[in-house]
Each structure stands twice: as C-alpha cells, then as structure tokens.
Amino acid sequence: MALPAQPEATAAWQAIETELRRQVGDSGYEIWFQSIEPRSWDGELLLLQAPAATRTWISGRFGAILERCAKQGLGPQSRVDFAGGEETPARKAPDADVTTGTLSGFNPRYCFEQFIIGEGNQLAHAAALAVAELPGQAYNPLFIYAPPGLGKTHLLHAIGNYVLSFGGGATVRYATAESFTNHFIAALGSKSLEAFKCAYRDADVLLIDDVQFLASKARTEEEFFHTFNALYESGRQLVLTCDRLPRALVSVEQRLRERFEAGLVADIAAPDHATRVAILRKRAALDQIPLADPGVLDVVADRVTDNIRALEGALIRVVAYHSLTQRPIDVALATEVLDALYPSPRSRTPSIDDIQATVAKHFDLSVTQLNSSSRTSQISWPRQLAIHLARDLTGASLPTIGKAFGGRNHATVMHACKRVSERLKQDPQAVEELDALTRKLSGRHADRDY
Predict the structure, then answer these.
(1) The pTM is what?
(2) Which residue ranges form the domains of the chain, and what is each CATH number?
(3) DSSP letters of 242-286?
C-alpha cells in the first residue's frame, strides 16, 4: 500500500501542475498525469508515484518536461524522480541556466526542424527563423499571435535553441508573462529589484510568452515597458506571443500596444487537414508509435481541427488505449477512443449566440458588453463586426439580428454592416480581424482540405 503523501509534497506538486498542463495540454495531462501522486518533497527532490504500467513511459517521455516545470515552479535546484523507478532522464541532463526563476534552457524537441510548416504558419515560421539568425536586425520586436495550442511556444523555444547553438554566446531569456509578473512581485518583496532587472535587461534575446496576461497589472506593465525600451534601444531582440492582436489588448496600456505593433506582427492560423496529418506523422515517428494503419492519422486529424496540443493529445490517448489493451493502433481503435471526446464533425451554420460568444472572446469582452448601449470604439467595433458576421453567416433576418443585439432595429443593423464594409476597404487590420473570426466560426466545422 502506498504511503500517504506529505503535505509539502502535495503543495510542491500543485506548484508545477499549471505549467505542466500548459506544456502537455489538458488531454495529455488527464491521460498521463491524473493518476500521479506526490510522495515526498525535501526542498530539492520531488518524489512522485505513478502506476507501474505507465511509469517507464512517463519517465522517459515526459521526464525532461517534469524537470523543467519543477525548476520553474520550485526553484533551480529542484529535481524529480519516481518512487520505485529508475532515475528520470531529466536528472541526468545538465541543469538549466536559471536567473531569478527565468529558464534559459529550452525543450530540445521544440526546434525549427520539428516545426511543421503549413499555409497558416509560413509567415510566423519565416520571421522566427530570421530573428534567430539575425537577432535585433531582422524584425524587432516580433509579435506572434494565435489562439492557444497552435505553436507559438514551439517557435519561441526554437528561437532559443537556435540562438544558444549558433548565436556565438548570445544570452537568451524566456518567460511567460505570468512568470514575469510573479518574479517581479517576488523581487519587490525581497528587495532584489536590481537583480531582477539585470536578469531580463542583460539578455541579448528576450522571449515573452502570452503577453495578454500583462493586462490590468499596472506595476508589472510599467516594469515591462521599461524593460522593453531598455532592450529595444540597445538593439537587442524581443519576441512576444499573444492570443490576440495588439490592438485587441484593450486592457493593456496604449503605449505598450503601440510598441508591440512597432515591428512585425505575424499570425498563426489553424492548420489545414494536410498539415495536421503531417504534424501527427512527425509525432508518431519521434515517439516510434507502432501504427498498424496509417489511416489512424487521418481519423485523428478529422476530429481535432484547431489546436495542435489537443491534436497530439488525441493521438496520445489512442496510444494509451493501445498500451493498456494491446489492441493494434488502427482505424477501429482510433474511432472508438475518439468518439466520446471528439465526435465526427458535421458542418453546421453558426448561430448568432456562437458569433457573439466568439467575437466577445476575441476582443476580451463579455457578451453583455457586446450587446450594451456603449458607443466606445473598444465595444462598438466588435459589435459591428459581430452584426456583419451574423448577417453573412446565419441567414437571419435584419430584425432578428437586431433583436439579438440588445433590441436594435433593422436600420441599426444595416448601418453596422455598412460601417464594416467601409472600414474593410481602408484598414488592413480590420480585414485580418474579420478573416480570423470567420475562420473560427466557419473553418472549425468543415475544414478538411485536400
């Protein structure tokens, strides 16, 4: 019988769970880590207990990821091991270089060679490679935006790996906006602000993930603003990722949004069917997955269309069932496993509710705000876009659309559509926003492209 976990071990495990979920995705976490139990924590070594049937797989496949998450969440001295198992590969690897909690060690699998290029990510990939080859000279800053799970973090790590390998000793720092905030707060509390500033401002290349989490954090935004300026003015490279366009970060200070737009803004769109299959084929080759039928990859690619982490997680789920049942990895197994979580897609027309929810989320608003009487530009433009999309995609009558948007009349609906049409003729940013929203609403239901 397993011994009860120490309270310290439970707290330590909870400290790294959030980052672990971000690294492997919710589906990957639920398949491989839900059954893991923390056993002990001595301030350096976190001992975990995993089921005997999956311990070796988890240790070999995810050991390095566990180690990095531990170093980020528990400190640079932290290590991870499994009770009753061999030492994880991560313990044998060189320690990551850590400064005030910011990792400059990168996932070796997140490199340019392992990034599958498709129509939706060509620009972002080319820009990231150019930045890695010529930091501070190609595009500065480089701002990459995309919904979660489409490869933004992969590109950041690829830049870091490339610069560390070929950058002639250039220093690289990577952090999420959330960890940047946590480090800043910790530095304030410990009166070590100068050391914190040096850790970021002395970097030749600074990579910041998920900058949308800077929103509404006044002191952190102020510090990041000065960090940005210090690096930019000295010709050092900044690469930022976000889940939306700079202009859509309405809760971030305007001066920061303007700096985010000062260089190249590149988007990553959801991969088409062929790209999804290529991603899965690469993953299967890397993990040496014994496919009894290559058609399995088409089944998975059909079911998961707009998130690469979920796509790979679906394949991992099929492999997990294969490991537990010893059934061959064929179309029948994949269909059976995925039917519950990812039903076979059916093309459908989005509803007005779908459109309102999608547009509100895209612009970081609530549906209530979208349908309110507010005429501020931060709300009126998203509302006009939503009305335009409702008219184009639903086939609903003008009075029906107006009623759904806070009881407006058909003339208001016509006016909103006219304003959108006029703006599309002269504002490339508006075209990008409409295109992104249309892809989200239409492409996810029937996007199999051959």
Answers:
(1) 0.58
(2) 7-95 (3.30.300.180), 112-267 (3.40.50.300), 273-339 (1.10.8.60), 352-443 (1.10.1750.10)
(3) ESS-GGG-TTS-HHHHHHHTSSEEEE-PPP-HHHHHHHHHHHHHH
Tens-digit pLDDT profile for the chain (450 aa)?
Answer: 444 556 777 877 887 887 787 777 766 677 678 778 888 887 788 888 887 766 777 777 788 888 888 887 777 778 888 876 433 333 333 333 333 333 345 788 889 998 999 888 999 999 999 999 999 988 999 999 988 889 999 999 999 999 998 988 889 999 888 888 888 888 888 888 888 888 899 899 999 999 998 888 888 899 999 999 999 999 999 999 998 888 888 888 889 999 999 999 999 988 888 899 999 999 888 888 889 998 999 999 988 888 888 888 889 889 888 888 889 999 999 998 888 777 765 545 788 988 999 999 999 999 999 999 888 989 999 999 999 999 888 878 888 999 999 999 988 999 999 999 888 888 888 888 888 888 788 654 433 332
170: CB partners within 8 A, 6+ apart:
135, 163, 164, 204, 205
Encoded amino acid at 435, one letter: D
* Counts for the chain of helices (H) and strands (E), in that order: 19, 10
**Distance (Å, whole) CA 170 – CA 204:** 6
**Hey, CA dihedral for 314, 315, 320, 321, is it positive or negative?**
positive
